[in-house]
């Protein structure tokens, strides 16, 4: 019956490009049809936002077509699939990226023009999908773009938060948080799959039942919630493949207790049902440590259970022997947030599929791989057993069993070394007995990946030293990457066309190694002139944005010096601000004649602080009071400006990065697992001023240390410096600027006391004092280079030319080959 219908449809439409045409007239018609029939506004009168909606729905139609063809082809070929489990996906906007990956941006721009709209203006109507905090979350989004573009059969699974990462409002220089109700006007980029829903169980008890002489565990849940799927097609660039990001939303389950209904306690019954929806409501805005909150744990299990039910249902469609599961499925755990998936697969295989433990464990340990993104042992997730035992009683039993078997095996390998046994145990005894989710992930997974070469060294020598010594073969690294589609082609179209012109091809967009071809043209004056022009145009756009935001006029001749990332003490935005105070102080104390030699700077800082992170919030306030002083000081004029860009997100980054001359990555060496912002700046020809930390070390290998401005203690020097503690004496310049803040030179004397206290000798854990002198030297080197435009442009072109290694395409190819064992599966039509 469906075969017949398929044949009839194919005959009717012929197979290739079955339905939608992409010529300008067809696009105009589709946009108007959606304005009229989907947005329900008259096709004759609609505004920019309705044009955005109409346009987006017409683009979505073309995504759905490719999504269907891709998944029908995957179904036909039944390749090994990758399932990428992550609690966060920082997608940003979808419109521009989608039309560029579909290869029909120009057609759409023309169609809109015919209808009297401007593409860029309409594209600005879209809000960011901010379903994540920072680097880890954006990394997933870049990796999904690469998985699609490289034709890998992959799915992303996550949570459909109703509230994304909070909006940052700055009031009198203080950060306030506002809810990000991003779904207010609907979301054209998702498809609600009402028929794809699964019950997720919580609480309850575990009973034992005897079946055919076997005792099996039966989990009697206390509460059930429904998980409903929302699909987000992810189009590849230059391919028909479009893969899926499936996000789960919690809905009241249709199982309801008649009891409360009949007692007429109707309202409470409904309220109870409403409670269910809160599970997927809010993204936890903390980019730091794990909070032992029950709701957070519910979120973890909710998306893990729904995802695994969906994955196993798909596997069972074509397979009924679970020994094939690891051949057909690769499960990627992105940090420890999805690690409960390990216990869940064991529960399904043992309790529901009745496999014996060792067979189940063999399958489970071959199907999972784990990537950690942190260097701070204290940031590793630990779940109190009381919390876990109450919410997921069967999973706690299973984790205890996994740990018991692991401890037995370990004792047989290392003997009665109790310190090491307790350090490696998945169960942490002590005041709050807890489950170490990182230990569980390492014990289970075949491969544990760090996110940069330096990160792996830190995992081996510090964070997971015991495990590395036991299982060195498990530990690998896959250097992070960013997608050149969004971070160059979408956000910097002028540079993108310039690169294609000088490389004589656009294939670098899919084959990033070609960027190295720019090296042979680096000294060509025409390229240098055009390169400079592109940067100038992008700087003008950024300057306009700054003026709109803050009313501050900035000079395009100044060096645009940028630090944009989450606010953290280890990322040392405070070092940047103290450096600016030093620069200001120097200019103030200069002879007017010397001021002519000062290289004008526009210092731009942006980033959100976790709502409960007090010190980070003080750093934001300090930035504003210093800016207030400098920007209103007539003596300074255009020599120095400081601007804090509020509500930093993916779209702001897409505007700021192309307009930046210099970007700062100041983490205390050994604290940034990788960093990915640096890679986006590098691709856009922006020079880096940085410590040799995380991925910066590999960037130095690719573009050369002499093509960057490096400073500060090295990773292997920091532990010894920490030992020195109070004996480490900070330089006078540093003491002077700290004194200025402490004495209230910028006001708020008492408010900044605790911030200044963190910099006192012996307390300066992040070594701002120790690194201050070399930091100022690096800044001076940047000044000297900036006044030599040819040298600067030379370094800028070489930065882009050497950025190929840091494409997420590279990262994904490495993972596919060495961790997941998946092959491209390109949809042929
Ligand atoms: N969570 N986490 N970790 C991070 C970032 N904060 O999101 O992951 C990012 C992605 O791996 C890293 O680049 C960054 O160094 C690391 O701190």
Automatic annotation (TrEMBL):
It comes from the Eukaryota. The keyword Glycosyltransferase applies. Transmembrane segments: none annotated. This is Alpha-1,4 glucan phosphorylase. Its cofactor is pyridoxal 5'-phosphate. Its EC number is 2.4.1.1. The gene is LOC113726070. Belongs to the glycogen phosphorylase family. It comes from Coffea arabica (Arabian coffee). The keyword Transferase applies. It is an enzyme of class 2 (transferase). It catalyses: [(1->4)-alpha-D-glucosyl](n) + phosphate = [(1->4)-alpha-D-glucosyl](n-1) + alpha-D-glucose 1-phosphate. Allosteric enzyme that catalyzes the rate-limiting step in glycogen catabolism, the phosphorolytic cleavage of glycogen to produce glucose-1-phosphate, and plays a central role in maintaining cellular and organismal glucose homeostasis.
């Amino acid at each position: 019956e469906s075969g017949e219908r398929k044949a009839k449809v194919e005959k009717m439409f012929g197979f290739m490009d079955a339905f939608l045409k992409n010529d300008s007239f067809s696009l105009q018609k589709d946009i108007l049809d959606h304005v009229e029939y989907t947005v329900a506004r008259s096709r004759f009168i609609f505004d920019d936002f309705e044009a955005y909606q109409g346009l987006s729905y017409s683009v979505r139609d073309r995504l759905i077509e490719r999504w269907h063809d891709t998944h029908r082809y995957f179904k036909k070929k039944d390749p090994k699939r990758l399932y990428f489990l992550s609690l966060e996906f920082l997608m940003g906007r979808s419109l521009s990226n989608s039309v560029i990956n579909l290869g029909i941006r120009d057609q759409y721009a023309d169609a809109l023009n015919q209808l009297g709209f401007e593409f860029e203006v309409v594209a600005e109507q879209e809000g960011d999908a901010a379903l994540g905090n920072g680097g880890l979350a954006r990394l997933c989004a870049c990796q999904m773009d690469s998985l699609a573009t490289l034709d890998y059969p992959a799915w992303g699974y996550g949570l459909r938060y109703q509230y994304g990462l909070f909006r940052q409002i700055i009031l009198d220089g203080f950060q306030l948080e506002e809810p990000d109700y991003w779904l207010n006007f609907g979301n054209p980029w998702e498809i609600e799959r009402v028929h794809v829903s699964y019950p997720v169980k919580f609480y309850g008890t575990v009973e034992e039942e005897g079946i055919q002489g076997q005792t099996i565990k039966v989990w009697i849940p206390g509460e059930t919630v429904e998980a409903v799927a929302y699909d987000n097609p992810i189009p590849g660039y230059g391919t028909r493949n479009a893969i899926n990001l499936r996000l789960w939303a919690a809905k009241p389950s249709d199982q309801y207790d008649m009891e409360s209904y009949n007692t007429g306690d109707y309202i409470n019954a409904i309220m109870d049902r409403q409670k269910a929806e809160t599970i997927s409501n809010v993204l936890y805005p903390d980019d730091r440590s794990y909070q032992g909150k029950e709701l957070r744990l519910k979120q973890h299990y909710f998306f893990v259970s729904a995802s695994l039910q969906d994955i196993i249902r798909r596997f069972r469609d074509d397979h009924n022997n679970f020994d094939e599961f690891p051949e057909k499925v690769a499960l990627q755990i992105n940090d420890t947030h999805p690690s409960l998936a390990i216990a869940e697969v064991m529960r399904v295989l043992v309790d529901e599929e009745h496999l014996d433990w060792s067979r189940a464990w063999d399958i489970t340990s071959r199907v999972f791989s784990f990537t950690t993104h942190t260097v701070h042992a204290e940031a590793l997730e630990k779940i109190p057993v009381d919390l876990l035992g109450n919410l997921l009683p069967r999973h706690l039993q299973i984790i205890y069993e996994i740990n018991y078997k692991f401890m037995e095996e370990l004792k047989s390998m290392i003997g009665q070394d109790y310190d090491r046994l307790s350090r490696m145990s998945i169960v942490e005894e002590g005041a709050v007995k807890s489950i170490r989710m990182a230990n569980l992930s390492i014990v289970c997974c075949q491969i544990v990946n760090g996110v940069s070469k330096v990160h792996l060294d830190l995992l081996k020598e510090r964070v997971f030293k015991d495990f590395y010594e036991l299982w060195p073969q498990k530990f690998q690294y896959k250097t992070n990457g960013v997608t050149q589609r969004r971070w160059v082609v979408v956000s910097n179209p002028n540079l993108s066309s310039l690169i294609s012109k000088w490389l004589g091809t656009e294939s670098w967009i899919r084959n990033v190694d070609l960027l190295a071809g720019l090296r042979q043209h680096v000294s060509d004056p025409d390229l240098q002139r055009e390169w400079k022009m592109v940067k100038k145009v992008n700087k003008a756009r950024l300057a306009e944005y700054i003026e709109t935001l803050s009313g501050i006029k900035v000079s395009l001749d100044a060096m645009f010096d940028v630090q944009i990332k989450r606010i953290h003490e280890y990322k040392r935005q405070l070092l940047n601000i103290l450096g600016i105070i030093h620069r200001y102080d120097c200019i103030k104390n200069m002879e007017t004649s010397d001021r002519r030699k000062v290289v004008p700077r526009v210092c731009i800082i942006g980033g959100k602080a976790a709502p409960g992170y007090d010190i980070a919030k003080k750093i934001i306030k300090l930035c504003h009071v210093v800016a207030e002083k400098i920007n209103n000081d007539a003596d300074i004029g255009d020599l120095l400006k400081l601007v804090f860009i509020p509500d930093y997100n993916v779209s702001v980054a897409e505007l700021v990065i192309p307009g930046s001359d210099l970007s700062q990555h100041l983490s205390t060496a050994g604290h940034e697992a990788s960093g990915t912002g640096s890679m986006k700046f590098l691709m856009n020809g922006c020079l880096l001023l940085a410590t040799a930390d995380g991925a910066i070390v590999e960037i130095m290998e690719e573009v050369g240390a002499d093509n960057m401005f490096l400073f500060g203690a090295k990773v292997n020097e920091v532990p010894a410096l920490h030992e020195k503690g109070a004996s480490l004496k900070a330089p006078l310049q540093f003491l002077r600027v700290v004194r200025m803040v402490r004495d209230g030179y910028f006001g708020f004397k008492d408010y900044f006391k605790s911030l200044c206290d963190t910099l006192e000798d012996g307390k300066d854990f992040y070594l701002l004092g120790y690194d201050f002198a070399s930091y100022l030297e690096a800044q001076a080197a940047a000044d000297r280079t900036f006044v030599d435009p040819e040298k600067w442009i030379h370094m800028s072109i070489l930065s882009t030319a050497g950025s190929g290694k840091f494409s997420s395409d590279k990262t994904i190819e490495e993972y596919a080959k060495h961790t997941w064992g998946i092959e491209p599966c390109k949809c042929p039509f």
